[in-house]
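Office hours follow-up: a student asked to see two folded examples consecutively, so here they are.
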Amino acid sequence: MIKTINFPDYTPSGFFKLTAGENKLRILSNPEFGYEYWLNKKPYRFAHANKPIPPAGADPLKPLWVFKVYDCKTNTVNLWELSKPSIQKALQSLIESESWGDPTGYPISITVTGSGMDTRYAVLPLPKEPLSSEIQKLSDESTIDLSNIFNSGGTGSKRNTEFNL
């Protein structure tokens, strides 16, 4: 059972959303990789092996990383659809670093400043620490299945039911 808490900046749909200021999270899974584009205000997602050519009028195709994460602000386990290249590059640098490595071994802080086209993201690893038993229990009890993000023909129209949230 996923715990739902109503916060002003919280998206109660079971999806992690970055908000202005500091966002602390703990990555709980390996990523699923794919692609995403938007057309007529609807997301279309595809597994990495099925790279599409977006139709005319669609936003550009973006690499998409999907993780199960623990949101430290809301104390909930959520799905994180990461399509921001600057955050992907920062996480890749941490993964490749001998000092940090696997991002499931430490919390991460992402600070969001600015808005619109001037939005900036600062990604910082926090001191390594074992996953607490409380977070592990929430993760084990969640029904999030990362692979389902790519099982609806690309459309995100059934987000909540696809993830049994």
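And the second, which I mentioned at the end of office hours:
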Amino acid sequence: MTLLSTLRSHLDRFRRDEHGVVSIEFILVLPLMAVLLLGTWELNNALLTKRKSSHLASTIANLAAQDDNITASDWDTFGDIADRILFPYDGFTHRIGLIGVRIDGAGRVNLECSFGTAVIDPSSLPDGLKIANTFYVMTASEVDYEAFTKNSSLYGSSGGLMDMTFRDTAIFAPRNADAVSCR
């Protein structure tokens, strides 16, 4: 038997042998499955964070609308409430803001009080709510979402490809008084 025929017989036997095919298929499919799993995890976390941001804005507005006077101490309590609402995502940087606006007889929006670091534009009050001589509590929440995959690439920093800021606002009318005062 010549070297060429020996080599040919070994190659033919190797071609017919199916041992290890499943292992090769697994190795080829595993990275795709890992990416799908991590992507699903990331999407779920982002959606839950967005939902908690929305819940935070409406809860703070609801609590403020039930009071007739908001003090700096009350605002600190709202900060503690924000941490509890955002749990387990309370590690993300978040900001909340509250303003009290009064609509005068001419339909102009006037800022009466303000708390927090999330910026709220009083002119963003919808036209349908600009009813003369009414008062509204407007709140905003901002949550800076950071992907858990950030900076975890084998090839260096991923640059925070999935990082985003969720911003939600809520508008409530006072419940127990004509207006909410801020001190």
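Two things to take away from it. Residues 19-182 form one domain. The longest helix spans residues 21-65.
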